């Protein structure tokens, strides 16, 4: 009898946590979505992007400085995240259409390396993928993702200034509208 009541308590705690998490995320996305939106062109109001280095799928360390002078979209994602999965085809298309104009997407996977490799190949992701893991979570926080939303996307202009941070899924049209004025 004790064992079944303990299991019931654990299930109740998990259910309450899940409902609480849902309402907290709903409140966040309803009230604070797209709060970080730097539209003033004065550099003093546009924060400089934090520097970082992470390994790519081949294990080679890549610095964000490798893409200085480009419009950069940093996209934090995970293979187990349904909204992340939904936005990848649009990101593939966006990269294909605008990379020749000085645009790059850096996908930072917050998964273990094997999960990322198993996920990336079948989808044919055509933009650079970096393996973030736990370090990627810290980088995401440094870029303004204090609640750990996924996906989380940051738009950086050619001068290395953060123009926009967007928690949640981006459609192709939304992403295109964010980057084309910067190209």
Task: Give structural notes.
- This protein has 183 residues and is of the alpha/beta class.
- The chain folds into two domains: 1-32; 36-182, Glutaredoxin.
- Helices cover 42% and strands 19% of the residues.
- The chain has five helices and seven strands; from the N terminus they run H-E-E-E-H-E-H-E-H-E-E-H.
- It has a five-stranded mixed beta sheet. The chain has a two-stranded antiparallel ribbon with strand order 1-2.
- Helix 2 (82-98) links the parallel strand 3 and strand 4.
- The protein is globular.
- The termini are far apart.
- Residues 17-44 have low confidence and may be disordered.
- Helix amount, in percent? 40-55%
Cα end-to-end separation = 66 Å
Gyration radius over CA: 18 Å
What can be said about the biggest beta sheet?
Answer: 5 strands, mixed
Structure characteristics:
five-stranded mixed beta sheet; 7 strands; alpha/beta; 2 domains; 5 helices; globular; 183 residues; Glutaredoxin; two-stranded antiparallel ribbon
């Amino acid at each position: 009898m004790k064992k079944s009541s303990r299991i019931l308590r654990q299930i109740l705690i998990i259910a309450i946590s899940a409902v609480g998490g849902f309402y907290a995320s709903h409140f966040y996305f309803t009230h604070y979505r797209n709060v970080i939106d730097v539209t003033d062109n004065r550099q003093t109001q546009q924060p400089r992007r934090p520097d970082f280095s992470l390994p790519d799928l081949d294990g080679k360390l890549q610095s964000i400085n490798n893409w200085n002078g480009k419009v950069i979209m940093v996209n934090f994602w995970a293979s187990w995240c349904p909204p992340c999965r939904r936005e990848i085809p649009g990101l593939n298309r966006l990269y294909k259409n605008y990379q020749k104009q000085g645009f790059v997407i850096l996908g930072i996977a917050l998964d273990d390396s094997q999960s990322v490799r198993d996920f990336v190949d079948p989808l044919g992701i055509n933009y650079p993928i970096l393996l973030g893991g736990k370090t990627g979570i810290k980088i995401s926080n440094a870029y303004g993702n204090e609640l750990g939303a996924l996906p989380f996307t940051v738009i950086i202009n050619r001068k290395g200034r953060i123009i926009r941070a967007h928690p949640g899924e981006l459609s192709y049209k939304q992403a295109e509208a964010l980057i084309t004025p910067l190209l």
